[in-house]
Amino acid sequence: MKSRDLRLIYDRSAPGHEGYRLPDLDVPEQPLDRILPKEALRAEPPLLPEVSEPEVVRHYIRLSTLNHHVDKDTYPLGSCTMKYNPKLNEDLCRLPGLAGIHPMAPEELAQGLLGLLHRFTGELAEIVGMDTVSLHPAAGAQGELLGIRLIRQYHDHRRNKKKTVIIPDSAHGTNPATARMVGYETVEVRSKEDGRLDLGALREVVNEETAGLMVTNPSTLGLFESEIAEASELLHSVDGLVYMDGANLNAMLGLTRPGDMGADMVHINLHKTFSTPHGGGGPGAGPLGIKAKLEPFLPVPVIVERDGRYLLDSDRPHSIGRLHPYVGNVGVILRAFAYIRSLGGDGLARISRGAILNANYLMKKIEEDYPVAKPGWCMHEFVSTLSWMRKQGVKNIDVAKRLLDHGVHAPTVSFPLIVPDCFMIEPTESESPTSLDRYAEILREIAREVREDPETVKSAPHRTPVRRLDEAGAARKLRVRWRPKPDGERGSND
Q: Do the domain assignments include residue 491?
């Protein structure tokens, strides 16, 4: 089958750029039945109505209102920081001189963008206390993967015989999966009664075979790991490295830095901490900040400045190779750049203070009905346990579904795994006291229903366009065709 020749030719009249041409890209055409299952393909083209522009616009606006999003109402998804996305960010990333640059453009034609990205790496490095940052990872999980690959490359380069990565029992579920993907065995270390890392238990498992420690700070319980510096020192005593999961960086901006705690690297969820769009399957960004000793191993290309020019350097013999086709998801990075530049250092610190204040305010407002798993002041989020509702036959997922009837989103449920029937709530700094009071009142109303009318909660949601779905069945038997329901019948389509 003939390939399509994708070619972009630059304006040969531009001074100094005569004759530049992108290399040809051979993109093989694929028949649809090799991309999608045959049963998902139409036998005939769909019959589409001819409609006016207002009707088209109204159709998609109606569809958009069926989903919940941060511009619609409260979205306190614990550990995922579903905060407001300033529209200023969108204005910057759409500037023609940035949005219109092809990822394979010669360096001479992309100096403005490369300079901006180079500056951004320096600003991120300063914020997290690292020496440099790789923008390549396209998501937090990929930033995590890069971190563990750098640990592997570091030890292999030094001919260290390392076998294990230590992970607290409160860690994100991706942590052990990533370590195993890179070839390490995982060792779980228990938390103390207060939910924090047990330094004594850590000492018992650290040895000469320890490659590194993966730790989230603040933890997934919303608690600051007060002995993180001592843990880092312990790892370094056996030439182990400390990878800090930066999912909860929203609690530390301008207040403290992972690098100052002894971490050798930290990934940064731009879509969590720095207000870029989150969810929906779109592009994300999970840059990785590192200390200088890991810099030779970074993925290529690396943006460097030489004699006032910005270059894409791929001549790095100890690099792990490529991780991303360019240097990261630039549109997401530009949005985060706009956020940081518009706030400045003092503004970033206010973000974290606001997030911490809001979390503790909401925690106190609902603690009688939603007792905290680990009592005490929290950071940016807190974890409640709904175990008492089990006596009424109500599970945390039922409460989550009931929240949808009130037009607000549920917190994270069933995580972290060390808390039974958990509710992980992160209001973020974006919410006003009025919004938090309203959310607290809704939660208290649902708790009253659990006591007096549990069936209403167990059968929720009742007011959403689609009632409760068989989520496991949908995941196993996905059907992507739409079929209209009979007249007057509500419910889900395929």
A: no
